[in-house]
Amino acid sequence: MKLNEIADNKGARYKFKRVGRGIGSGKGKTAGRGVKGQLARSGVKGIRQFEGGQMPLYMRMPKRGFNKPNRARYAEVNVGRIQTAIDAGKLDAKSKIDAAALIAAGVLRRAQDGVRLLGVGDLKSAVNIEVAYATAGARACVEKAGGSVAATEPRETEEKSAPKKASKKGGK
């Protein structure tokens, strides 16, 4: 095969049809838009969801949920992935494993707002891990292997995070 013989498969590239270039082209005069009306004009947008003045379906449906714009994003890593890195010699099981060590070993690309440890996989080595969050399964897996998990940002329980009710003072 030579460079000049390289070509796309038949039908891989669609040849753009030039419209409005004479009656003999097949797409002359109205350029395939039909005659008159809103769709024949230029600059028409959103006609597909327009319902003739009736409230459109997407506006009639209820809105649910809320996306917090500044929520913390965590890099997630499984305990099985840490064990794979230890077996490959990229992580040292005897030293403390934190976000910087995981990035240096190539387990994570970036730490984002912290590391969340998940409990998928098995861990055979006793390791000391320092992460932002760790699931209950991940903690159990690490402690079963003889290691420890230090969570730098412990989650608040519901009773701690619930606002305190103001007591009424005075009254008859």
Describe what you observe in this structure.
The structure is a single chain. With 172 residues, the protein is α/β, with parallel strands linked by helices. The protein has helices at 57-60, 79-87, 99-105, 136-144, 158-161, and strands at residues 75-78, 96-97, 115-118, 128-131, 133-134, 148-151. The strands form two sheets. It has a three-stranded parallel beta sheet.
Keywords:
alpha/beta, Ribosomal Protein L15, Chain: K, domain 2, three-stranded parallel beta sheet, 6 strands, 12% strand, elongated
Shape assignment: elongated
Q: Residue ranges: pLDDT <50 for 5 or more in a row?
A: none
Distance between the termini: 99 Å
**Helicity range:** 10-25%
Structural class: alpha/beta
Specify the biggest β-sheet. Answer: 3 strands, parallel
* Oligomeric state of shown chains: single chain
What is the N-to-C succession of helices and strands? HEHEHEEEHEH
CATH top level of one domain is Alpha Beta
Q: Please tally the β strands and state the result.
A: 6
**What portion of the residues fall into strands of 2 or more residues?**
5-15%
